[in-house]
Design brief:
Largest sheet: 5 strands, mixed
Structural class: mainly beta
Number of domains: 2
Pfam families: WD40
Distance between the termini: 14 Å
WD repeats: 30-55, 78-103, 126-151, 174-199, 222-247, 270-295, 318-347
Mean pLDDT: 73
Low-confidence stretches: 1-15, 349-418
Number of strands: 33
CATH topology of the largest domain: Methylamine Dehydrogenase, Chain H
Strand order of the largest sheet: 3-2-30-29-28
Radius of gyration: 20 Å
Number of helices: 1
Strand content: 35-45%
CATH class of the largest domain: Mainly Beta
Shape: globular
Keywords: Repeat, WD repeat
Length: 418
């Protein structure tokens, strides 16, 4: 039995908060998203924050929003994706925003879109992936976009694709992962692409692979994680690769590992998260690693941890999000940390102070069982009974739960049939 935590009002808390890192004072409160925030990214000059998300269980807000971090005003709203946005990335020169997404429950919009951040116009639509796109990353010189994805419910397209951003042509297709690719990252010099993934429903390919982007050859395979790898990040000097992951369905390997990319040796193992790690990011000076995570099915460890990468000691623990933290990003000057969560908020976090959310919440009980589920729903006053079967659609129950007229006053309980 596990919990999904939702706000206790029909009004969602959709604000973005900007905090001064040194003083802890709130600088701005930004609104806009009507669905939860899955991915955020600062522009290279640090003036704009791009954010995207939506919901894979119903057609919601699949837009990307560009917001001025000084004034708090929305600069642009970029539409185009017909499914929810899973990943975004600025080009190194800041002129273009790449975005990808789709849906793992049906064949949807698996395209990558390149949009001009000044005009809001779509510059290109890159196809190729037959499953939904979970991760994208520009090469440091801005000429190539790497992308990866797949599907955790069946053996699908687990490839990584390198595409020329000017011509839209595919330059290379990198294979190797036997499970879906969840995260990719270019080395700072642009010669190597790191990738990680796996599957949270069974023990699969939890390795990290380093591949030469020119030859397509695998340079190294880094093992260590006993659960699937959710997030990776190169240190600014390119000598170390940080990685994190775990499993949201059981207590697994929630550690962060720092590995030497030349020798493949583990330099440090950072423990502290009691739930699985969804996102990590190095500070621009490379001295601190920020990490966040949690569980979307129950109220767990939704905190952000700041680590000293030399000593391995925790420098700070930041609270505030009511549900799992999906994405974190340092501002280019290192003074601000932005975080996005399943609670539909983006917070610009003070790194030395703690701040708790003041909103009230209720628990909605749920349980996920088997790979494909069918929900049979019946209402009985204050309870919602859900029986699970092996075929086939997770959508119905989530829509009924999330759109229930009086959900703010009720606790829904469910259990899995055997």
């Amino acid at each position: 039995m596990s919990d999904i935590i939702l706000s206790s009002s029909n009004k969602c808390w959709l604000s973005i908060r900007l905090w001064d890192v040194k003083t802890g004072q709130q600088k701005a409160k930004l609104d806009g998203h009507s669905d939860y925030v899955r991915t955020i990214c600062y522009s290279p000059d640090g003036t704009t924050l791009a954010s995207g998300g939506g919901n894979q269980y119903y057609q919601g807000d699949n837009s990307i929003r560009l917001q001025d971090v000084k004034t708090g005003q929305q600069k642009a709203k970029l539409d185009g994706h017909s499914d929810y946005v899973r990943t975004i990335c600025y080009s190194p020169d800041g002129t273009t925003l790449a975005s990808g997404g789709g849906n793992q429950y049906y064949q949807g919009d698996n395209s990558i879109r390149l949009q001009d951040v000044k005009t809001g116009q779509q510059k290109a639509k890159l196809d190729g992936h037959s499953d939904y796109v979970r991760t994208i990353c520009y090469s440091p010189d801005g000429t190539t976009l790497a992308s990866g994805g797949g599907n955790q419910y069946y053996q699908g397209d687990n490839s990584i694709r390198l595409q020329d951003v000017k011509t839209g042509q595919q330059k290379a297709k990198l294979d190797g992962h036997s499970d879906y690719v969840r995260t990719i990252c270019y080395s700072p010099d642009g010669t190597t692409l790191a990738s990680g993934g796996g599957n949270q429903y069974y023990q699969g390919d939890n390795s990290i692979r380093l591949q030469d982007v020119k030859t397509g050859q695998q340079k190294a395979k880094l093992d260590g994680h006993s659960d699937y790898v959710r997030t990776i990040c190169y240190s600014p000097d390119g000598t170390t690769l940080a990685s994190g992951g775990g499993n949201q369905y059981y207590q697994g390997d929630n550690s962060i590992r720092l590995q030497d990319v030349k020798t493949g040796q583990q330099k440090a193992k950072l423990d502290g998260h009691s739930d699985y790690v969804r996102t990590i990011c190095y500070s621009p000076d490379g001295t601190t690693l920020a990490s966040g995570g949690g569980n979307q099915y129950y109220q767990g460890d939704n905190s952000i941890h700041l680590w000293n990468v030399k000593t391995g000691q925790q420098k700070a623990k930041l609270d505030g999000h009511s549900i799992a933290v999906y994405s974190i990003c340092y501002s280019p000057d290192g003074t601000t940390l932005a975080s996005g969560s399943n609670d539909n908020s983006i917070r610009y976090g003070m790194l030395r102070h703690k701040r708790k959310s003041s909103r009230q919440i209720i628990d909605i009980k749920t349980f996920q069982h088997n790979f494909k589920l069918q929900f049979l729903i019946k209402h009985d006053q204050q309870q919602c009974f859900i029986d699970y079967h092996e075929s086939s659609d997770i959508t119905i129950a989530y829509i009924l739960i999330l759109r229930s007229a009086n959900f703010e006053k009720r606790i829904y309980q469910s259990w899995a049939s055997t």
